[in-house]
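Running co-folding for NAI.
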Amino acid sequence: MHRITKAACVGGGVIGGGWAARFLLSGHDVAVYDPHPDCRRLVETVLANATRAYGRLTMAPLPKPGTLTFAGSLEEAVAETQWVQESVPERLDLKRSVLTEIDAAAPEDAIIGSSTSGLLPSDLQRDMAHPERFFVAHPFNPVYLVPLVEIVGGKGTSPDAIARAKKLLGEIGMKGVAIEHEIEAFVADRLMEALWREALWLVNDGVATVTEIDDIMRYGFGLRWAQMGLFQTYRIAGGEAGMRHFLHQFGPALKWPWTKLMDVPDLTEDLIDRIAAQSDEQAGDLTIRDLERIRDDNLVAILQALKAGNDGAGWGAGALLKDFEARLQSEAPRPELDLTGPLRLVETTVGPAWIDYNGHMTEHRYLQLFGDTTDGLLRLIGVDADYVAKGTSYYTVETHIRHLGEAKLGERLDTTCQVIAADDKRLHVFHTIRHCVSDRIVATAEQMLLHVDTEAGRATPAPRAVLDRLEPIARAHAALPEPGGFGRKVGAAKG
Ligand SMILES: NC(=O)C1=CN([C@@H]2O[C@H](COP(=O)(O)OP(=O)(O)OC[C@H]3O[C@@H](n4cnc5c(N)ncnc54)[C@H](O)[C@@H]3O)[C@@H](O)[C@H]2O)C=CC1
Ligand SMILES: C[N+](C)(C)CC(=O)CC(=O)[O-]
């Protein structure tokens, strides 16, 4: 099966840069071809934003980023690639000629996607010698955080290309949704256009300002859409009687004059001036770069919240993130076992969702980090997802955390684990969280875990295979100095 080792991005603007970042941060090499003189700076700016966002998005060990190169020609960029993504401006003639050039130069087994927002794939592939490997892969800005890609084949596209695209998108944490029928603007932009048109009318008619419309979305229905979409949201709005009742109750309103959707407002200079001026006022002092960072932090927080949703099983885009993290965990190279000191197991960045009303990392995130550290140790001794699926695992039965410093937004932290003692049922560990830069200790945790039969809910001896990995660590750590704060109990000094 084909895997991506190198991707090419032809066109390195907002979207091409986003694709490049997505591939690079998933560990794949990327060659960008874009004749724009400022292309390198623009792609590197997108990559800097993406790297910052990824540091906050996931606790899973990210792969070593791929190598970014800027090719001097399209032919050079697409050489030895498995995926070529075209993201040049939205003009049929330009895209057609660029795609035909890509088709002539790319390796035989490479697949070719176009980022077009609405042009028909059959029109785009018309002049290609190998149209079967071409499809629309319509992404969403920022490509490095929003996972959806609409995959649309044209008349000449082979089902194999669509299947490969979906699989390869999964490897880079994206969700390829294949759309059977090719229509202009596909599905997402059809929906967004409808709303956009209505919003333009509301501004045009002086009913609402740009800020009011955005507030109405972000304080209201926009919150619902990110997690349940349109139909499931309305199903719930029908009460216990569900969708059928909802349709009967609100269906007649569709015939009332509630929308102007069928007409398109003229984008007169006057309307453009009005929207641009209101948009400037709305942004205030915030630059596009400021807004990008705010947007990215909010998207990260939303994705993390959705990952924790549905009782921890993940929901929607959060379930996808959870699967992506599981894949990263399983593919991460196992660290070299250095037994000369406590094991370094987790490195992470304090994300926005971790900050409390005191402006620093909130207490339950410490427990999360300590839990992730324990998980890191367990994976090292063979207790991974497959092991747990077979019916035994370790449960934490006691934890004592000491908070010794503060951790602020964006700071890098790492954790270590010292095994204090272990036998066939018990595992006694001492974890430490430090600031990566200053090495200052932020918190420690002492934990006792028991090896359990998860079905019976009772302690049971760990198998020899696990103990064979655990015991050498425990023996080496027994020779280390006792960590500061070990065995301390909670209590006010008696006066
Ligand atoms: N901006 C957005 O929100 C979204 C855009 N798209 C689609 O992505 C595509 C690109 O759009 P953006 O990145 O927004 O445009 P952009 O204007 O930011 O970038 C286009 C880039 O293509 C380069 N270019 C022009 N001719 C070229 C050629 N012959 N070979 C290589 N590079 C060439 C330009 O120098 C420019 O850097 C369009 O098809 C658009 O519909 C898709 C989803 C969202
Ligand atoms: C404005 N747009 C049509 C180019 C938007 C898209 O295609 C997708 C997005 O990111 O909203």
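Result summary
The chain has a mean pLDDT of 93.
Residues 85 and 381 are 41 Å apart (CA to CA).
Job closed.
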